[in-house]
# Entry
Amino acid sequence: MKKSFIYFENLTFSNLLIGLLKNEDVRKVFSGFDVYYFDASFFANKVLISFLKKRNVFVKKLHFKMLDIKDEKGELVRLRIPRKDLFVIRDKIINSEAFNSFLNETWQQNSFLDFIEKGVIDEGITEEASVSRVLFLVLVVHWHMKKSKCSQSIFVINNRPWFNIYSEYASAYKIKLTSIIFFNLSFINTYLKIFIRSHVSLYVLIKNLKYNLSVFIGKTDLRSKNMVFIDGRGDISLENNGEKTDFFWYLSSDFPIENILYKHLTLSEKEYFIKHGLISVNEGISLNNIHKRNYIKPRIHYDSRFKDEYKLIKLLISSYDLDRIYWSSFFKNYGVKIYTAWHKFNNIHMAISDAVRDNSGISVLSQKAFEGNKVISYRANFDIYFCYTNYSHEINQQVNSKIKYTVITGFLKDYTSSFLKDRALQLRKKLQQNGAKKIVFVIDENSSDDSRWHTGHDLQRENYSYILAKVLEVPWLGVVFKPKVSKTLRQRLGPVVDLLEKALATGRCHIYEDSGRHTTSAPPILAGLSADICVHGHLCAGTAGLECVLEGLPTLLIDREGAPYSKLYNLTLPEGKVIFKDWPSTIDALMEHFNTPEGTVGFGDWSSVIDNFDPFRDGKAAYRMGTYLHWLIEGFEDNLDREVIMANAAEKYKKQWGSDKVITS
# Structure
């Protein structure tokens, strides 16, 4: 007998009632279809599901983990969606009748159209209303259908813009998509956001109240009107000691500190910056300092056929306008001529880049992480991009970024090891004094509670449990951990904490736990320099492992998620010696390597491919970036035009480091 299922994104009383009244597909609940749901309301769990079961309706929550959902190539679909599927969906959206009915000549200004195109597919699977979420849900339903040998299904999703495009996507997997209006807090929040972000004064008032600031914030006295604003990650150290810092390029060059501007979040941060002679400002902005637009606010043609799509585009217009006004005013008030950032993964930076140009300034992006393949969120609009290698430029071309000058610097944190070797050696000696003869450095990632929308805590626990068990079993083995997010590590490790505490008690285990605002302050290389072998538990990430590779440290990668399209596979790194599929096989290979007198030949060896990741490898990447920024500031001090300043700096860099190290678009 053929099975037929109906799936609900959210099972609630109102959803079911509205569906039964208005949607013939939903009525099939009572026609022999088994019912599965992703989430259910409190009332549904307590009353509705019991009622349906009494009416002989099979109802069950759909249980799955993100790690279960892989395609026929073994690729985790969470990785495939931004690598492939979202490009197709975006193109369908911007070529749709709905999108083109909204077009207005005012959209051709600056980066606005790029902002919209990126905005319609922004945010990841964790965001309930995102495009990524609905594609992922469709693929989960497809996975469950195959697993259950279901021949046909109906999937009832929350009402969303571009429904017809999602319906076409689902039909390729033999899923009939239908939608119903879903009333929840996110529905109300959308309208609230539209209202607030359409009224600049109200937005400023709420923003200042959030940070306990007066609406009438005074100006900060500046020693220069040509400032570089650092939009950093919250690593605020101004100590040149090799630890994580947003000021790495300043500390590695002769850039003048009086030309740097930063935002402090607390009084203690402000006092710290004052002590070091750096100017910082708070998060708010005065209503008195809001500047008028020097552009036309983008408009939209209304089309009653596409109300949901209209609301989304309207919100994006308001967001762009508000962000550009806010940042344009911020840059003018504080004399900012250069905006530096690392975050390019949503569309906000596009409005900010336009805002700094309103002040005749320059937008600058610095590469933060290794990019193993194209991802739709990598699309970026900046004047200048400081990146590791030419491969980063190729990725930008693939995602249609708009970068005027791509400046190849090498790995930007390559200077840190010279500051950290002594500390690392001290830790190594300490572990050795407690019996460790061989030491492994293990690199993890962050995790979240719900393993449906993130790879989850269990995957991270594996990064600890296997090696800790081996350390407790083998008296000559040591381990060092540098968690990505140490603040929540013990909570996320759950029962594995007991193993960790036992290993720490042996004196052959160490964990770096000091933290910045968000992430652990110790850089990966500090732990790596203490070890004989470095192991990154996530090939799909890889940046921390790459940092160790570039220092010449033997490094292994484990691809548990499934990332077959990563450049790391294209480089033909040997499986079983560099790339592994799980922790048990990695542990076995480690022990074989350690127990072999000369070690396993080629174990953790990247020497044949290392030039792909940094063409310099001289420890001067941050110096190159800082010097380049200094040249830009000197151009502003000489009252030159921004285009002339950028062209001059590019020519200087080419002469010093090679004509192939600056790519002009």
The chain has three domains: 3-185, 211-289+335-408, 417-612. Residues 3-185 form one domain. The two ends are 61 Å apart (CA to CA). The chain is about 40% helix and 15% strand.
